[in-house]
Amino acid sequence: MSQGDGPAPSNLPAGVSLLENQVAGHTAAQGCLGLLKPTGDDAGTVLKPTGKVQCGIREIAFYERLEEVRRRHREAGEDTEEEALWTALFRVVPQYYGHPKLTVDGREVEFIQLEDLTAGLEWPCIMDVKIGRRTWDPLATPEKRRAEEGKYKACRQRYGLCIPGFQFYAVRKGGALVRHGKDYGKRLTEDNIRDAFLLYLNATEDGRLSRTLLERFLADLRIIRDWARKQTTFRLYSSSVLLVYDAAQLGQCGDSALQRNTSLNASNGQTAAAAPLAVKARMIDFAHAFPADASEAGTVDDNYLQGVESLVGLFEQFLAAEGNVD
Ligand SMILES: Nc1ncnc2c1ncn2[C@@H]1O[C@H](COP(=O)(O)OP(=O)(O)OP(=O)(O)O)[C@@H](O)[C@H]1O
Ligand SMILES: O=P(O)(O)O[C@@H]1[C@H](O)[C@H](O)[C@@H](OP(=O)(O)O)[C@H](OP(=O)(O)O)[C@H]1O
């Protein structure tokens, strides 16, 4: 969604800075107001500007709805079948902390405050996977629809998803940070999209991956997939799954081929068994979350489901490949 027009903010309120590891969406580097990161009491959260009014209203409504389910769940202690479908999402949607207003460059801006999914990671590897063949919503103008249909075509056609941005720390290059933005994502095709995932996942040169990493991602992705297989009340357009892991912990999973400098591991004083590998897949960006209309009632969101099924399928193929480690 658009995150505000005009130059990048020059005058941020005290106690917030730009979220430096934002990998997609509108960023300060593009002259927009990107996500911010508070310090002090609110450390560990991010502030997403609401941008276009209707996008903000829809995204807040989605998070508030989930909060309402959470409140009922806490009070009732047990869920109806419909509630259970939504409580399953708590694990795969960032915690929501409301929608505060801040003044940026003399203008009042409403934000959505969320758990920072990258908090505490030493070498945060982050990939934004935008889900769905169709990314324009029912209110899109013909121009917007054409613009959306014209990009990331090859990947979207084949997989029902695209990669607008990612970053990773290359463990076998001493932890060098590599970033790829939307131009890279737009050049990907059905033949090489797997290579983008292999890069992101710190595969060895011969394509071997950490089994632990894949299994942990799959645990979350299957929760999202199972929800998408059943839920019939929403249509999610242009929503993403954010993949996050800490490459600094990869070397502690047991295989020397994936390891970074072993002295770094030793300096952490951690053993392979003691070091939990931080890995998560989370649903983000509900700016185009629409309640199903009358003609869609009782049916699943095929557009979203197909993208998530593809993502699960890709990770399952990686996991089934021979030679993976740990
Ligand atoms: N909860 C979060 N924790 C950490 N980083 C986040 C979080 N939410 C979003 N981000 C970062 O911000 C980026 C953009 O997020 P999001 O897709 O919600 O914004 P957007 O501007 O609406 O995107 P788009 O322009 O693609 O619609 C993500 O790719 C990710 O790098
Ligand atoms: O991947 P790209 O090429 O950067 O394309 C952008 C992306 O589709 C965003 O999701 C969209 O914001 P919305 O979700 O708000 O529509 C934005 O529209 P915008 O330029 O109209 O803000 C597009 O420019």
Automatic annotation (TrEMBL):
GO molecular function: ATP binding; inositol tetrakisphosphate kinase activity; inositol-1,4,5-trisphosphate 3-kinase activity
Keyword terms of this UniProt record: ATP-binding, Kinase, Nucleotide-binding, Transferase
Gene3D superfamilies attached to this UniProt entry: Inositol polyphosphate kinase
Record-stated family: Belongs to the inositol phosphokinase (IPK) family.
Cellular component terms per the entry's GO annotation: cytoplasm; nucleus
GO biological process assignments: inositol phosphate biosynthetic process
SUPFAM superfamilies: SAICAR synthase-like (SSF56104)
Cross-referenced PANTHER family: INOSITOL POLYPHOSPHATE KINASE (PTHR12400), INOSITOL POLYPHOSPHATE MULTIKINASE (PTHR12400:SF51)
Organism listed in the record: Anopheles arabiensis (Mosquito)
Reaction equations catalysed: 1D-myo-inositol 1,4,5-trisphosphate + 2 ATP = 1D-myo-inositol 1,3,4,5,6-pentakisphosphate + 2 ADP + 2 H(+); 1D-myo-inositol 1,3,4,6-tetrakisphosphate + ATP = 1D-myo-inositol 1,3,4,5,6-pentakisphosphate + ADP + H(+)
The keyword Kinase is annotated on this UniProt entry: yes
Signal peptide: none
Name assigned to this protein: Kinase
EC number: 2.7.-.-
